[in-house]
Amino acid sequence: MTSTTYPGEYGGATGVEGTFVFSSPVPGAASYTYHFNDDDPVTVPAGADGTASVRYTPPHRDTNYLTVQTTFTDGTTSEELFWSFMVNGNGPQVECTPSEVPAGGEFTCTLAPVQVGAQSYLYQWGDGPEQALPMGSDRTATITLTMPADVDYAQTLSTWSVDGSGARSDVDYTSIYRTGFAASPRGTRMT
Prior knowledge:
Elements: E1 18-22, E2 29-36, E3 42-45, E4 52-56, E5 62-72, E6 81-87, E7 93-97, E8 100-101, E9 106-112, E10 118-125, E11 131-134, E12 141-146, E13 154-163, E14 172-178, E15 189-190
Parallel strand pairs: 8-14
Antiparallel strand pairs: 1-4, 2-3, 2-5, 5-6, 7-9, 9-12, 10-11, 10-13, 13-14, 14-15
């Protein structure tokens, strides 16, 4: 099995279609029966070259699974082959400067879309309310926020994009650190 979009390590993104090519090292492949994650099995015929390709759009980020079994022209079958592949989240890309600020200090974050069809953004600063953030003509958005005085060492900025149907992307979490504390951690970003 091969896929240029989803090669095994992280690739593609939630909601991004990829092509998966099946082949057999043993000649005489007639068809391939496969299923992704917990989907129902599907059988596709092998071409004259013994390969078959299918398209699939992963529904969630991180680990996804593909199981494939070859049926040969003589009716025998191969053992099932299990393959896992990693899918990137489709939350917005977030770049913030600076990443450390004093209490009352401001920082600016720029969001860029990953979600297919993204039309706007949402964000939440710490435990505050969700806020809408319109997308500019370049499909990015910029926000300027202030570090609260009551934050011990870091506060999280949660961001999403929203497509035309109202579907939200995966959430992206970015930590902004407050300066003025000994041994403050640096550089943590979770997606």
